[in-house]
Amino acid sequence: MTPRSSRCSKATGIRLAELTGLRYDPDDPRRSDIDLRRREITVRGKDRIVRIGHQTARSLDRYIPARPRPGSRSCGWA
C-alpha cells in the first residue's frame, strides 16, 4: 500500500481492495471507473458511485499518468 492509495481510500471510504480494482481509460469513458471531470468513482460489484473532492481528484489526476503499469516490478495500483 502506498501513502497515496491510503489517503485516497480514507478520503473516499473505498476499501483498498476496491481501490486496486479500479479501471481507468482516458480514451474510453465506458471502460473507466474514474471520472475526474465529474469527480466520481464507480465501485464495481457494489454498484455505487462515490463522489470525490477536488483535492482527491487532483491527486488522482497527477498519480494516474505516473503510476507503475500492470506487470511492472513495482505495480502498486492496477
Description:
The protein is of the alpha+beta class and 78 residues long. The chain has helices spanning 3-12, 16-20, 54-66, and strands spanning 34-35, 40-43, 48-51. A three-stranded antiparallel sheet has the order 1-2-3, with no helix packed on it. The longest helix is centred in the last third of the chain and has 13 residues, at 54-66.
Structural class based on helices, strands and sheet pairing: alpha+beta
Describe the strand arrangement of the main beta sheet, using strand numbers: 1-2-3
Coarse shape: globular
Calculate Rg over CA atoms: 12 Å
Order of helices and strands: HHEEEH
Which range best describes the helical content: under 10%, 10-25%, 25-40%, 40-55%, 55-70% or over 70%? 25-40%
Unreliable spans are 72-78
For the terminal residues, how far apart are their CA atoms? 12 Å
* Main β sheet profile: 3 strands, antiparallel
Task: Please describe the structure with a list of short key phrases separated by commas or semicolons.
78 residues, alpha+beta, 3-stranded antiparallel sheet, disordered C terminus
Summarize the structure.
By secondary structure, the protein is an alpha+beta fold.
List the topology elements.
Blueprint (H helix, E strand, L loop, with lengths): L2 H10 L3 H5 L13 E2 L4 E4 L4 E4 L2 H13 L12
Antiparallel strand pairs: 1-2, 2-3
Helix pairs in contact: 1-3
